[in-house]
Specification:
mainly alpha
Length: 50
């Protein structure tokens, strides 16, 4: 058994870089969440301060 037999073939290289997908997903969820929290704080301030 040679040292090369433990390596995967070139076409089965490691997983694709998913950082752009992860960043997009954080924005997809984070932007509405941030807006919702902003509105919550704004309306709670109005409620308790008059």
């Amino acid at each position: 058994m040679s040292a090369d037999s433990s390596q995967s073939p070139p076409d089965a290289a490691g997983p694709h870089d998913r950082r752009p997908l992860i960043a997009f997903t954080w924005l997809w969820v984070g932007a509405p969440l941030a807006y919702g929290l902003y509105e919550l704080v704004r309306k709670a301030t109005q409620l308790f301060t008059g």
